[in-house]
Design goal:
629 residues, six-stranded parallel beta sheet, globular
């Protein structure tokens, strides 16, 4: 495998200690990482079970895992950061962090959001959705604001202002300046009481646990001595701190690292250590999640000794025109910010330059690509938006494609698939029912009911008290009575249970007119049923807690996630296109002006544009308002 590497890739493979690989688009990053693993295991004698590869997406983790198995025949632990933290830190050590039960219950953010609102009302008499400063936000925006407040210190001042306006709460032991902290602690205590954990909380609480229990950090660090982190430019402070805890807490028993606090260790046999991070500052597009490329460009150099920097600058994906166009764009926009100039070179032919056009020309572009031998699935329409659904642009393109009989598939930048969250929430409701504790059914049931568009926080209390509309009460009764039924029959198969849950979800999606979600659910259920052998397992043989963990493992490994195997044009956000490539890319630029000042907002917009350009292999079109082919 090493003979197929270029000099830059070979340097990255043989580098020891702490290595920062700056990998431009299409530069063979995955091939380089797999070659490095092979070199470490076969040439350096490093045990494969001491290697940990972390990524930010399930797709990337699955690709690394499958390719290492197929090309090197080694079983290396490849995982998303969230899945690793849940399985290797929270699951085995959660009792040390104040949890009281054997299992941790994975719940969607909607459960935590509901809990925050409910506790604020119980303690302070405040309806947050109606509070000044919050009541102008829609539910999605308010949910994001409250979760950000809970997971960090952002918003403490605003929350204190709101809670201080209450007349209900009075406790001389609590200062008014600490109301926000008081509410947060009450919600945290309730989360632990119910054994709940959300996707975002896994990282924050794992970091806190390792800081409070250095012996746990040391045990995990000594197990995984050689750590790889992909897409390091999308790291935030919590993830960076976790990586430091995992790389600096261990003890080098055979080959101790230098006593210098900045040491990253050496990868000589199993006694040493190594850290390999891979990323590209020009592809950092998750600033809205408090990610920053500074951890790749600055922090790692400050916190680790003798960092080896290797740049992969040969693009094997795109034509010369596309590569040159990407260089010109990113250098022209970001050079003023002091970033290193891009110098990607292409190994492919020159090809065609980027073509500017208007939206009306897109169907013609699709038909032209088909005439030149492409399939629909070879074409992607990319948007520089966070969310597509609900925008005029989304409505225009879907209507235009339907009018022109162009098959398409929409992939939006939602945090998690709606069907996956619904499954987790439904299982949480079953857990609550099986415990015969009415309090443990409250939050999951609230979230399940509010999947229907017409059930909101304003009428949820009436429905829970059996005072809502007949339609809503029938919906609640369908969920409740079905769970009662399956708990009475231990011979019910998990296949039957998941099928019924999916039927309920499809009913909701049909009512809400979400046809893409229906297709996603049907495809996902089929794959999950095969992988988890749902039709062969009875609820009496595998309890709901074990099934929830199996479900999480399946999703973490990339099973149960529908893939676009059908011949359809991909309509997606730039964020969802990360790591993908298409022969033909049609990039719809929102053409928003961000001014001359280099801000995080402008950086994300510029980087999104660069990522969109570099997804194209052969043809690139940029849709502008006033340009016509």
């Amino acid at each position: 495998m090493l003979e197929n590497l270029n000099p830059q890739q070979l340097e990255a493979v043989k580098s020891t200690g702490t290595t920062a690989i700056i990998a431009g688009p299409g530069s063979g990053k995955t091939h380089t990482l797999i070659s490095k693993v092979m070199y470490m295991v076969t040439e350096k004698g490093i045990p494969e079970d001491s290697i940990l590869m972390l990524s930010f997406t399930r797709k990337a983790a699955k690709e690394l895992r499958d390719r290492i198995k197929n090309e090197v025949n080694k079983d290396v632990y490849c995982s998303t950061i969230h899945a690793f933290v849940r399985k290797e830190i929270l699951k085995p050590y959660h009792l040390a962090f104040g949890y009281k039960t054997k299992y941790i219950d994975i719940v969607p953010d909607a459960v935590l959001y509901t809990m925050i609102c409910k506790k604020a009302h119980e303690i302070f008499g405040i309806v947050l959705e109606l509070a000044p400063g919050y009541n102008k936000k829609n539910k999605t925006e308010l949910k994001k604001t409250l979760l950000e407040w809970f997971n960090s210190n952002v918003g403490d001042v605003a929350m204190n202002t709101i809670l201080n306006s209450t007349k209900k709460f009075s406790d001389p032991a609590v200062k008014s300046a600490d109301y926000s902290k008081y509410l947060k602690n009450k919600v945290k205590a309730e989360m632990k009481f119910y054994s709940y954990i959300t996707h975002d909380l896994t990282l924050y609480w794992a970091k806190t646990m390792l800081e409070e229990h250095p012996e746990i950090a040391r045990e995990i660090a000594n197990k995984y001595r050689h750590i790889f982190v992909d897409e390091f430019q999308d790291t935030n402070q919590i993830i960076y701190d976790l990586i430091k805890l995992l790389t600096k807490s261990g003890e080098n028993t055979k080959n101790p690292a230098t006593k210098d606090s900045k040491s990253g260790g050496e990868d000589e046999k199993s006694g040493g250590r190594s850290l390999t991070v891979v990323g590209d500052a020009d592809q950092a597009i998750y600033q809205f999640n408090r990610a920053s490329s500074k951890f790749l460009t600055e922090s790692i150099k400050n916190d680790y000794k003798n960092v080896k920097n290797v740049t992969l600058s040969v693009n094997y994906r795109s034509t010369g025109e596309i590569v040159a166009g990407g260089n010109r764009y990113i250098n022209g926009e970001s050079h003023a910010a002091g970033r290193q100039k891009k110098a990607m070179t292409a190994c492919r032919e020159r090809g065609c330059p980027m073509v500017k056009c208007n939206a009306m020309a897109v169907p013609k572009i699709v038909n032209k690509a088909l005439q030149e031998g492409c399939h629909y699935k070879d074409i992607a329409v990319l948007f520089n938006y966070m969310h597509l659904r609900g925008t005029n642009t989304y409505d225009y393109y879907t209507a235009t494609f339907e009018e022109n009989n162009i098959p398409y598939r929409v992939t939006d930048s939602r945090e998690k698939d709606g069907y996956e969250e619904f499954l987790y929430t439904f299982l949480s409701y079953i857990k609550g029912k099986s415990s015969k504790n009415p309090y443990k059914t409250s939050y999951p049931l609230r979230v399940l009911l509010q999947y229907r568009d017409t059930i909101t926080s304003k009428n949820i209390e009436a429905i829970l008290n059996n005072e809502g509309s007949e339609t809503h009460l029938k919906f609640k009764e369908e969920i409740s009575s079905y769970v009662d039924k399956i708990l009475e029959d231990p011979d019910t198969t998990w296949g039957e249970i998941f099928k019924k849950i999916t039927e309920i979800y499809i009913k909701i999606c049909t009512y809400n007119k979400e046809k893409e979600q229906i297709k996603e659910a049907q495809t996902t259920l089929k794959e999950l049923a095969t992988y988890l052998k749902l039709n062969e397992l009875y609820i009496g043989l595998k309890n709901v807690y074990e099934m929830a963990e199996d479900l999480a493992d399946a999703f973490d490994k990339g099973f149960g996630k529908a893939t676009n195997d059908e011949d359809e044009v991909s309509i997606m956000t730039v964020h969802k296109s990360k790591g993908l490539e298409f022969p033909v890319v049609i990039y719809v630029d929102n053409e928003k002006e961000y001014g001359d000042e280099w801000t995080s907002v402008k950086e994300q917009a510029v980087n999104c544009h660069y990522v969109a350009i570099t997804r194209a292999k052969d043809k690139l079109y940029r849709v502008e308002k006033e340009k016509v082919i």
